[in-house]
């Protein structure tokens, strides 16, 4: 290990992120580590945000991004090769600390091989695998592999303690740093209540999600539009704009397609309600106090595998965090056009269903509270503590020899 703590050489940090969300987390963490530790050198695997903070990625982050069993199987040879290359780079030039961000299956395999080869290297996992949703046995398997988990959700430390997982600290969710962008001003609140209501339609950002959900969501819009006038906004990512355009060609109400985060959050602040694919966007909507119907579909074979390992009673983040089914969940065979329209329609009016969701969302601030520090500040502080504690243990062990 380097002598970075005494200022003699930079702290050498190796990070691995495999998804866009992980890239954002990694970039914010890198910035705060630099502020707290002074001289820091970064290497590993990451996307454009982490690269902008000074990381030279070993290979394109997209190589290890795979969602769903189908994608994982298709990319398996490449993923396995990237695991070997990542571990080899760490072994050939051991860093001071290894930070594995999200991408649980890829990073767990990296951690296992690195731990075997370099048992004294401190390893931090940023974002807990969803052991509270499925495959809870992963918690116990992680304990010998990582020194600490940085959790995004306040209930996760207790979950890992109960399941025999590694030491875990709640650092806060990065969305908490965007509340001012998510929530309406007084003037925007008035716009939210004007007619015609603005409906957000969010069929997901992945190709498979858009192909499965956009046609269904379009039919829901058709049913709603038959009974009332609505304005529709469809946020997506730049790489999916043309695909989305082909799906909305025949929609009775042409949605305004937006791609930037600024435009997306502007729409959130004005929206009366939303129809959304299950995922992080449901938490964004809840924090923005936008009532929603949440839906999702996967191929039948994926559903059967997921059911075999699932332990959660809910698949929607706000419901899991609140501990009750505040948001209607329309999954698999329940994700029909008629059911979605029936659940969504009352949310566009001053209804008890709408009031119940807004009351539930109001509880999130207290549940997520982290005090005055941001998630990335808290995460960086714990990373430095893990590094220092491991360094002291190694030094003490050497003196005893």
Structure description:
The protein is of the alpha/beta class and 401 residues long. The chain folds into 2 domains: 4-172 and 370-400, Glycogen Phosphorylase B (Rossmann fold); 178-366, Rossmann fold (3-Layer(aba) Sandwich). 49% of the residues lie in helices and 14% in strands. It has 18 helices and 13 strands. It has helices at 20-37, 48-52, 68-92, 104-117, 138-142, 156-163, 179-182, 186-192, 207-227, 241-248, 261-270, 280-287, 300-309, 317-322, 337-344, 352-361, 364-368, 375-400; strands spanning 11-17, 40-45, 56-57, 97-101, 123-126, 148-151, 168-170, 198-202, 231-235, 256-258, 273-277, 292-296, 329-331. The chain has a 7-stranded parallel β-sheet with strand order 3-2-1-4-5-6-7, sandwiched between helices. α1 packs across α18 (375-400), α3 (68-92) packs parallel to α4 and α9 crosses α15 (337-344). It is elongated and about 80 Å long.
List keywords for this structure.
single chain; alpha/beta; 13 strands; 49% helix; 7-stranded parallel β-sheet; 6-stranded parallel β-sheet; Rossmann fold
Question: How would you briefly describe this protein structure?
Answer:
49% of the residues lie in helices and 14% in strands.
